[in-house]
Design goal:
Helix content is 52%, strand content 17%. It has twelve helices and seven strands. Strands 1, 2, 3, 4, 5, 6 and 7 form a seven-stranded mixed β-sheet that branches. A hairpin with a 2-residue loop joins strand 4 (264-272) and strand 5. Helix 1 crosses helix 10 (166-209) and helix 3 (60-76) packs antiparallel against helix 8. The longest helix has 44 residues, at 166-209. The termini are close together.
Length: 336
């Protein structure tokens, strides 16, 4: 219908750009950490053909802007020890990008700067804008031109296209040089845009699955542990009671996270009043054993807080992306 059509159009626009945050986050941090090694040649050199001796670093002002934008993103990512605190989980959930526009709407003028500087979505938007500026100003290569050059060079490599004549060969050498010099920034741009598309898909999926009686929120929280980066993925739904004489809500929380060398674990928790039903799935046998050895601690803790607890038998199995992009694609086909 007219109300949902823009949502499905937006999903179609971003679903091909996104990837799981567990894949994108390490790539993004690797690209950010490589900023100091960048060396780009100005586009305006003799004969329009950059050489190794003409390479120079980013313009100082752009370098500072790029590093500042990257540092703001680094500062948003909590450590695993911080994420063990309930207040940190709450703040990281609110700042995961899923609620950014809602916070903007709810903010009363003047706008609270914390809404911008502590939410990952506007920080990513700023990083993307800064990287685009750095690519264009230092190499005169727009993202669209880079894509065309990649296609052209791929044709030469596969011998489906061959430059003819000295002028064409010189132009190709210049284009290859410029493309190679821009590649680190281009990789940072592509990864940042993919991560931004992932956050948008979380937001759009929350909209498509919510209704008057059932609200759904998807979010992903990045975190650091030692030198590696991981993601806590959550799907939260709240179903209001159908009974007029009851105000009781039913909550469901699905979340998956990394257990280090023990693989991922998926938790499915349902809460109604003070009754908790819980189910766990692990990727590995070692993870299953670790979980079973420690479930009594969770059970005792929840009982001490006044909950009735029913923990179903844990099992080993495949853990899929909670966002289920393949299901979304099927949904798009249905509404096409």
């Amino acid at each position: 219908n007219a109300a949902t059509l823009p949502i499905y159009q937006a999903i179609r626009a971003v679903i091909g750009q996104q990837a799981p945050m567990t894949v994108l986050l390490p790539l993004l941090m690797q690209a950010i950490n490589g900023i100091d090694k960048l060396a780009l040649a100005p586009a305006s050199v003799a004969n329009n053909e950059p050489t190794a001796t003409s390479a120079s670093k980013l313009a100082p002002n752009l370098e500072l802007e790029l590093k500042a934008a990257a540092q703001r993103l680094r500062n948003l990512i909590p450590s695993l020890s911080q994420l063990r605190q309930p207040q940190q989980v709450k703040q990281s959930s609110l700042n995961s990008g899923t609620f950014f526009e809602s916070k903007l709407v709810a903010s009363k003028p003047p706008l609270n700067s914390n809404t911008i500087v502590k939410d990952i979505k506007p920080i990513l938007l700023q990083l993307v804008a800064t990287v685009r500026q750095a690519i264009f100003k230092n190499t005169k290569l727009s993202p669209q031109l880079i894509t065309r050059l990649e296609e052209k060079i791929a044709g030469i490599v596969t011998k489906t296209a061959t430059p003819s004549g000295k002028a064409a060969e010189a132009q190709t050498r210049a284009e290859v040089t410029r493309l190679v010099q821009a590649q680190p920034l281009h990789q940072l741009l592509k990864t940042s845009e993919s991560l931004l598309a992932r956050i948008q898909l979380n937001q759009l999926s929350s909209l498509t699955q919510s209704s008057e009686v059932n609200q759904v929120w998807y979010m992903e929280i990045p975190y650091a542990h030692h030198t590696r980066h991981h993601t806590l993925q959550l799907r939260i739904s709240k179903e209001n009671s159908h009974r007029k004489d009851s105000n009781e809500e039913e909550w469901q929380l699905e979340f998956s996270f990394e257990l280090g060398d023990h693989g991922r674990i998926l938790s499915d928790i349902r809460l109604k009043g003070k009754m908790l039903n819980m189910r766990f799935i692990t990727e590995t046998t070692a993870g299953l054993q670790l979980l079973q050895d420690n479930l009594h601690l969770l059970n005792d803790r929840l009982h001490s807080l006044g909950f009735e607890v029913n923990i179903r038998q844990s099992q080993q199995g495949e853990i899929t992306d909670l966002l289920r992009p393949h299901t979304l694609e099927s949904l798009l086909d249905t509404h096409a």
